[in-house]
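Hi there,

I know you've been waiting on this one. I reran it after we fixed the sequence typo, so this is the corrected version. Both the input and the resulting structure follow.
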Amino acid sequence: MKIVEIFKTNVQNDKDADKIITFLLALYPVYKINFDLEDEENILRVEANKLYIEANKIINYMIRLGYNCERIE
């Protein structure tokens, strides 16, 4: 079963996005993580083949890195 979480962020460029992806993949190596910076909400997309994605922890990590991040329902 595949599950997807989508987050609105204030990440502005590919360099920052790549840094965040590397950081998150170190914590969650089984997740598939990418950004859509062409979208006006600078989307962070996290996909996993399990029942639960730790959305709150991802939001907290993003905030600690200095970025806004909120889950899109």
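Quick highlight: The chain has one domain: 3-72.

Best,
R. S.
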